[in-house]
Write a structure and sequence with these properties.
Shape: elongated
Order of helices and strands: HHHHH
Low-confidence stretches: none
Structural class: mainly alpha
Number of helices: 5
Helix content: over 70%
Length: about 90
């Protein structure tokens, strides 16, 4: 009985060099994502996805925010930090 790695080796051996490069990129992506997930705090790893429906009101708020961003641009980190400091008093 062959292992998954043995099957993978046979598959990779049959790929063109270009396709092998794409598979390698994808494998690196999967590995990197797993490593990042492993570094998350336990509470975030165990958190469930938010599957509540997106409301029309939320869609309108997002659209308004995007319009404002396109018209006025974003905020700098420094201005955001200053605003947070001002809120703390």
């Amino acid at each position: 009985m062959s292992t998954n790695k043995e099957h993978l080796h046979h598959l990779i051996d049959s790929l063109s060099e270009d396709l092998a490069g794409e598979v390698l990129d994808f494998a690196r992506y999967v590995q990197d994502r797993r490593q990042r997930e492993a570094n998350l705090p336990e509470g975030l790893r165990q958190a469930t996805l938010d599957n509540e429906p997106f409301t029309d009101e939320e869609r309108a708020e997002v659209a308004a925010s995007l319009t404002e961003y396109r018209e006025k641009g974003g905020v700098t980190l420094e201005s955001l930090m200053a605003e947070c400091d001002a809120m703390e008093g």
